[in-house]
Write a structure and sequence with these properties.
Elements: H1 84-87, H2 93-96, E1 117-119, E2 126-136, E3 139-145, E4 158-167, E5 172-178, H3 188-199, E6 206-210, E7 215-219, H4 235-242, E8 247-248, H5 254-259
Parallel strand pairs: 3-8
Antiparallel strand pairs: 1-4, 2-3, 2-4, 4-5, 6-7
């Protein structure tokens, strides 16, 4: 009995009747899916309405008016070269001129009634000593007396307080204030002078004699005045300049001979 031979596969035979195949167009590309693709909702599902963000209305901007041209500042008036206030010299004008005042003499006097003066404070700028005064006409000369002659000339010498003073023009002088004698008796002139001297240590003063009451009256400025400028001299140098040639250190001194009737 001959064996059954299986038929060879036939590629040209049609597919089964139930399967339909869509012919493929080689020129047609398959659709590509993107991230923006919206999936199709299933049948019967509610489709959400697309929402849109409203665009804000643009505000109408009114352009600013042009700025007014700036007014140039007024030019200052040039200074008047003939203004007396700008031409006046200060009391310390010598410092601005690069010069220094050289003091060769120091007057020995009391403050006059028209000047403002100061007294340098501190014991190192004053001296209690013995002096001898000699009047020649309207001039009164004051002499220092050596300590060794004070007993010999006890009837001629007078205790005094020497004070270092300066005025508003920076003029240096020594003010001799008489002190009570050996009997301790004072007077109104001396007391008022010492009171003014104490006040002048801290403020400018002006001293005027009041003959009707036998005292010195003092005045103080209502405006603030600058502090005094004291010269660069030691008290020893000041005393030496104030009494140069007026130191009695011997009984043979011309002043002593004149007082005793000598030649």
């Amino acid at each position: 009995m001959a064996a059954a031979i299986a038929p060879a596969p036939d590629d040209d035979r049609e597919p089964p009747t139930g399967a339909k195949t869509k012919p493929v167009n080689p020129k047609e590309k398959p659709p590509m899916s993107t991230s923006d693709s919206v999936p199709t909702p299933p049948d019967g599902a509610a489709v959400p309405e697309a929402t849109t963000t409203p665009t804000p209305a643009l505000e109408q901007i009114t352009p600013a008016p042009p700025a007014a041209p700036a007014t140039p500042p007024a030019r200052p008036e040039p200074p008047d070269p003939f203004d007396p206030a700008s031409l006046r010299l200060d009391a310390d004008y010598s410092e601005g001129l690069g010069v220094r005042k050289v003091i060769t003499t120091v007057p020995n006097r009391k403050p006059n009634k028209s000047e403002w003066f100061r007294v340098r404070p501190g014991e190192g700028w004053q001296l209690q000593t013995a002096v001898l005064e000699l009047e020649k006409g309207v001039e009164r000369l004051t002499y220092l007396v050596a300590p060794s002659l004070r007993t010999e000339l006890s009837g001629e010498v007078t205790p005094a307080l020497l004070l270092t003073c300066v005025n508003r023009a920076n003029d240096l002088f020594i003010w001799r204030v008489k002190l009570p004698g050996s009997d301790g008796r004072s007077n109104t002139w001396t007391d008022s002078a010492l009171q003014i001297a104490k006040a002048a240590e801290t403020t400018w003063c002006r001293m005027v004699s009041d003959a009707a009451n036998g005292i010195y009256t003092h005045y103080e400025p209502t405006a603030d005045l600058p502090d005094p400028k004291w010269p660069e001299l030691s008290f020893r140098e000041i005393v030496k300049l104030a009494f140069r040639g007026r130191m009695i250190d011997s009984l043979d001194h011309p002043v002593i001979r004149e007082l005793r009737g000598g030649a």
